[in-house]
Design brief:
With about 450 residues, the protein is mainly alpha-helical. It is about 80% helix and about 0% strand. It folds into two domains: about 60 residues; about 375 residues, MFS general substrate transporter like domains (Growth Hormone, Chain: A, Up-down Bundle). α11 runs parallel beside α16 and α12 runs parallel beside α14.
Length: about 450
């Protein structure tokens, strides 16, 4: 009992002390709470200031690789029109230099070879210029070189040593490759946003450039001289040059490239190798026809030069429309049937052109060729889409550059063949190439199925 009383007394004596301490600490607690409330109010009042400051920093930040304004995007895609115009220029213009009147086929083959040399040199030169000077500079430089080379070719009087024209065509090839490579880098953000639409629009603009070149030359052939036609064509890259100079800078994309180990692994894979070979042969088939069709039609069928160039225009138009239609058919038609139709159309088109036919028969054959070649690339690209996980338009521009090399090597080889075996041998190379493309597409499909398992 005594112990309980002592404890009770101690508790009663401690209560006043605790109460007094609580009373003394109350102002401190109130002050701390007031400071906390004040800090919250200050933070809330500073929040709009922070938002405004962040917005200003974002506005002052330079345009990065992931953003392209609408005007720059359209301008970059529209550059494929100039690329198509320059790449298709030589095949359309050969009759204007009088090569339909004689059989100097070896010189024609050398013309395409020097055009190819220009593409090769420009591809490596552009890789050095892009990081240092930017996309807009390369586009403007390529357009300026195109204008200068076309004016230079226009100043050459007839007769002229072929070597002088080869020098001009070398610069034309350089300008075309510079524009093409720079545009691949410029469309990177657009490709990341919508790959299918970007590639389809790029192909449409490129095809329109090819159609425009042959159409302008065919329409002006009987009215203007070769020099005047070249000056007319030079106005198109001049327009692009002025447009690039006035355009806002286009930042070089800093999207992470795949590491060297990953890149080498991709290129060593059967899918990448087969796809590169396919582009090499397919572009070779297309541009063998594009390079030699006017001369073949004039000398083999007796058509006028304007008619031959007009058939080339129809060929490019069939390629353009065929690719658009093929994109729509991919989801509605069995791919094996579409491939079979494409290969058979190209095969019979080459076979019919190789035989002595009328102009009307040649027109049907040209449409068959365009429709047959058009569906090959869309079919293959869809089959191996999963193999290019690290796809970057600038990086894989190397694959397309190799395809363009095949495109320009084919007319060179045909020049040698025509020199020794006659103009009739021109159609046999795309005939064999169509069979090679058929085998490669089947191999790509098989590889794609095996890798998905």
């Amino acid at each position: 009992m005594g112990r309980r009383k002592n404890r009770k007394a101690k508790l009663e004596n401690a209560r006043p002390v605790v109460a007094e301490t609580a009373v003394e600490l109350a102002p401190v607690a109130v002050a701390v709470a007031a400071v906390a409330v004040a800090e919250e109010r200050v933070v809330e009042s500073l929040e709009p200031v922070r938002v405004v400051a962040a917005a200003r920093r974002e506005a002052d930040r330079p345009v990065t690789e992931g953003v392209l304004n609408a005007a720059s995007s359209r301008r970059a895609l529209g550059g494929f029109f100039l690329s198509g115009l320059l790449f298709s220029f030589l095949g359309s213009f050969l009759p204007a230099w009088g090569y339909h009147l004689h059989s100097d086929y070896l010189t024609v083959g050398l013309y395409f070879l020097f055009l190819n040399f220009g593409v090769y040199v420009a591809f490596h030169l552009t890789q050095l210029l892009l990081p240092r000077r930017g996309i807009r500079f390369v586009l403007a430089l390529g357009s300026a070189m195109a204008v200068g080379s076309l004016i230079y070719l226009a100043t050459l009087s007839v007769p002229v040593p072929p070597s002088l024209r080869m020098a001009g065509l070398f610069v034309v090839g350089m300008s075309a490759a510079m524009v093409n490579t720079a545009i691949f880098h410029a469309i990177t953000p657009m490709y990341e946003h919508d790959p299918a639409a970007t590639i389809n629009l790029a192909g449409v603009f490129f095809g329109l450039g090819c159609v425009a070149t042959s159409g302008v030359i065919a329409a002006a052939f009987t009215t203007y001289t070769a020099s005047a036609i070249l000056l007319i064509i030079a106005c198109i890259p001049l327009f692009y040059l002025l447009s690039w100079l006035r355009a806002a800078p286009i930042a070089l994309a800093r999207t992470e490239f795949p590491s060297l180990r990953v890149a080498l692994k991709d290129f060593r894979s059967p899918g990448a190798v087969l796809f590169t070979l396919l582009l090499f042969f397919q572009f070779g088939n297309e541009w063998a026809i594009a390079g030699w069709l006017p001369l073949f039609v004039v000398q083999r069928l007796g058509a006028s030069p304007a008619t031959g160039i007009g058939l080339l225009c129809w060929y490019f138009l069939a390629l353009l429309v065929g690719r658009i239609v093929a994109q729509a058919l991919l989801r509605r038609m069995k791919h094996s049937r579409l491939l079979l139709f494409s290969v058979l159309a190209a095969f019979f088109g080459c076979l019919r052109l190789s035989l002595r036919e009328t102009i009307e028969g040649a027109f049907v054959a040209v449409l068959l060729l365009g429709a047959g070649f058009a569906a090959i690339y869309p079919l293959t690209a869809e089959s191996i889409e999963h193999r290019f996980q690290s796809y970057h338009p600038g990086f894989y521009n190397g694959i397309f550059s190799l395809g363009l090399t095949g495109a320009l090597l084919a007319p060179t080889v045909l020049g040698v063949a025509a020199q020794y075996w006659g103009i009739g041998s021109v159609m046999w190379l795309p005939l064999v190439g169509s069979v090679a493309v058929f085998v490669l597409v089947l191999a790509i499909w098989l590889e794609a199925r095996l890798t998905r398992r």
